[in-house]
Specification:
This protein is an alpha+beta fold and 489 residues long. The protein folds into 3 domains: 114 residues, conserved putative lor/sdh protein from methanococcus maripaludis s2 fold, CATH 2.40.420.20; 112 residues, Elongation Factor Tu (Ef-tu), domain 3, CATH 2.40.30.170; 193 residues, no CATH class. The protein contains 12 helices and 28 strands. It is elongated, with a radius of gyration of 42 Å.
Length: 489
């Protein structure tokens, strides 16, 4: 072979060797020239933290899992209520959550004991009034006059009783005094009833009888709640018996707390203040408005076509779930509620029907202030928006995951299951999917006990595709300080 031909053959062979080296550099380069720490830090997030093996799934470093906030847990079969979301609103119970406090006398406001927003309890003083009613003063004077006459007749009756027994005076004289005493006593009872009607309490009437002076100030207090007619003690004052503290407001025409009342039934917040010092108030004028929010209700609005679902939930006593949206944290969810009743009328404008769910309120805190008063905060407030999940179907022993655990690609859905250090993308069949829950059919790829990712399915899908798109040249090599198994061909 001539010297020229040997030179050409050498050059051709050298070019082939260089080409082979360039093509296969990705496979042998990392072994001969491993990347430095700075080079590893400059790699993309997918290269640094994710690796995909087409046969075995996605591998994430501990740092990547922590960055994603990945939640892993085993599958547990449980029952699930497929439901229909219905818009709703928290509202007060009409006639039971608000309490107006009115003046029963014509008077001037001398002192205000409470402030707007303050928490008050049954029996706490609210206002001091100076009565200026001539009729009230006359009624008190008449009562005192009757009491004085009764005392005089009693003294006279005691004196002549001894003389009558000795026969010095006829017995008819004693009988006349006894009849007069009964008349005066009946007159006193009527006058006490008149004072009750005019706004005085039983304790105040007792104070008039004890001190023999007219009432100069009248204290308006927080009502004591509700009671049965048998518990009313206005008759005690009318009979002239010593009134108790509870009788104070019962005689004022305010019912008492029943024995089975809620623990917060006698605790109010002052919602509105309508007077100021020195104001002249008339009988029946509202001085303030109290709010009692220990028991509220959720009012849902279902379309006319959905009314049969409401009726069925009431008939079957199915549990109701309510979701209250908040801005800076997870939604507040309350389970186990029930529909009390629904309206029998469809609203003509919106074509909706209202249904009502009792909602026991929850105390957040009693906040003391620098002025020594307390201000109460409740979790649920009238006007608050909510969603009622109206039951539609009861599914037994289902795989239920958060909706964030499922990623959809066209008509297919996938869940990421843990297999060793890898996350496998597993196809599933969905029974139900909404903004919160995903119900997966049993008998498929997943079984009870499988550990799956409960969130970030979309991010895992992106990491999987990015890792696949970066090529297989990184398989089996060191990535950001951690090594992966090589791909078996």
């Amino acid at each position: 072979m001539s010297k020229g031909k040997r030179s050409r053959s050498f050059l051709i062979g050298l070019a082939i060797v260089v080409a082979v080296i360039e093509v296969t550099r990705g496979q042998w380069g990392p072994y001969l020239f491993p990347p430095t720490a700075n080079q590893r830090r400059e790699q993309s997030p997918n290269e640094a933290h994710a690796h995909v093996d087409p046969l075995k799934g996605l591998v994430l470093s501990d740092a990547a899992r922590a960055s994603l906030g990945l939640e892993l847990s085993p599958i547990v079969l449980r029952d699930y209520w497929r439901s229909l979301p219905i818009p709703a609103e928290v509202m007060e119970e009409p006639g039971h959550c608000e309490q107006g406090v009115s003046s029963t006398v014509h008077g001037i406001v001398l002192k205000i004991h409470a402030f707007h927003g303050q928490t008050v309890r049954a029996g706490d003083p609210l206002f001091d009034l100076r009565p200026i009613s001539e009729f009230l003063a006359t009624a008190q004077s008449s009562l005192l006059k009757s009491v004085q006459e009764i005392e005089l007749v009693q003294a006279e009756l005691k004196r002549i009783s001894a003389i009558t027994e000795s026969g010095s005076i006829p017995a008819t004289r004693r009988i006349e005094k006894e009849s007069e005493l009964k008349r005066l006593d009946s007159q006193r009872l009527v006058q006490m009833q008149e004072l009750l009607v005019r706004g005085l309490s039983a304790d105040q009437i007792a104070e008039i009888l004890r001190t023999k002076t007219l009432i100069q100030e009248l204290t308006i207090r927080v009502p004591l709640g509700y009671a049965t007619p048998e518990s009313s003690s206005s008759g005690t004052a009318a009979r002239g018996e010593a009134p108790s503290a509870e009788n104070d407001h019962a005689a004022f025409g305010v019912p008492l707390i029943s024995a089975g009342s809620h623990e917060h039934s006698s605790i109010y917040s002052i919602e509105q203040m309508n007077v100021h010092l020195g104001k002249l108030v008339q009988p029946g004028e509202e001085l303030c408005r109290l709010a009692r929010h220990s028991q509220l209700q959720i009012v849902g609005r279902a379309f006319e076509s959905e009314s049969f679902l409401v009726t069925r939930a009431i008939e079957q006593n199915w549990p109701i779930k309510a979701v209250f949206e908040v801005t800076d944290e997870l939604p507040v969810i309350r389970d186990g509620l029930s529909i009390l009743y629904s309206d029998n009328v469809v609203e003509p404008d919106s074509r909706t029907i209202r249904f009502y769910i009792p909602l026991p309120n929850e105390l957040i805190r009693d906040q003391p202030s620098s002025n020594g008063l307390a201000y109460r905060s409740w979790r649920f407030k009238p006007g608050q928006r909510a969603r009622v999940l109206l039951p539609v179907e009861h599914l037994l022993k289902q795989i239920v995951l958060p909706s964030e655990a499922v990623v959809k690609e066209g008509a297919e859905a996938f869940v990421f299951r843990v297999n060793g250090k890898r996350l496998e993308r597993v196809p599933v069949r969905l029974t139900h999917l909404d903004s919160r829950d995903a119900v997966i059919k049993t008998g498929g790829s997943l079984i009870a006990g499988d550990i799956v990712a409960r969130n970030q399915a979309y991010q895992l899908e992106l990491a999987l595709k990015n890792a696949q798109g970066s090529g297989s040249s990184h398989e089996g090599h060191d990535h950001a300080g951690h090594s992966h198994e090589g791909h078996e061909h």
